[in-house]
Design goal:
Length: 215
């Protein structure tokens, strides 16, 4: 259920466990069971509660989790902001982070973020190759020269290095992982289903909201 160095033991049951939602009343955000604390990290969203989605386009579990996360993002509370960061555990993950930050620089993330997952997991494109991604970009309506310039830019290089730093600073063990307000981390290895992961996320948002209000 988790991509990277650690994988949950119940991953073999994913097809069964993820078939049905878990009722909300059965889900509790329990420390060191459904979430863990990390060393406090800076929050970029000011007065709003920050949720960071650490993902990797090549991760099948991230791909499977996306529909649940996208559905939640459309109904998330007004005081919550979702921020995405492509995890970079090793050099082989960096090309996928480059795709993300290139799309971000070109203002194309909202339109094409989900298409990257589809192209990798369904169309099976070799998306670590610059030539493949250039053809993909053109096929998806992006000017070739604009793509080339952004893809190889110093700004994108810097964002990738920052993502690498954040992957370490947040003490990630795999993807997908969600961090609430720079302090509370849950991941697919700490939940029995993707709907339950969303419910844990909502529990952590309540904890963070209470913490902010002095509760």
């Amino acid at each position: 259920m988790i991509c990277a160095l650690v994988r949950g033991g119940f991953a073999l049951l994913a097809a069964v466990a993820f078939a049905a939602p878990v009722p909300a009343q059965e889900t509790r955000a329990r420390l060191d069971i459904e979430y863990r604390l990390i060393a406090p990290q800076p929050v970029e969203t000011g007065d709003k509660i920050e949720v960071v989605d650490f993902f990797w386009y090549g991760c099948p579990h991230c791909n499977d989790f996306q529909p649940s996360l996208e559905d939640w993002s459309k109904r998330k509370p007004a005081d919550v902001v979702l921020r995405r960061v492509p995890a970079v555990f090793r050099d082989s993950w960096a090309p996928h982070a480059r795709i993300y930050y290139t799309l971000e620089q070109l203002g194309e993330l909202e339109r094409l973020h989900q298409k990257v997952y589809f192209s990798y997991h369904v169309e099976e494109l070799q998306m670590s190759r610059p030539d493949v991604m250039e053809r993909w970009a053109v096929a998806n309506g992006i000017d070739r020269e604009l793509w080339r310039k952004a893809y190889s830019s110093a700004a994108v290089d810097a964002r990738i290095e920052n993502a690498r730093r954040l992957t370490e600073a947040y003490a990630l063990q795999g993807t997908p992982s969600l961090v609430v307000d720079g302090r509370y981390l849950t991941s697919s290895s700490m939940a029995s289903s993707y709907p339950e992961m969303i419910q844990i996320l909502e529990g952590l948002i309540r904890i963070a909201r209470g913490k902010r209000s002095g509760g």
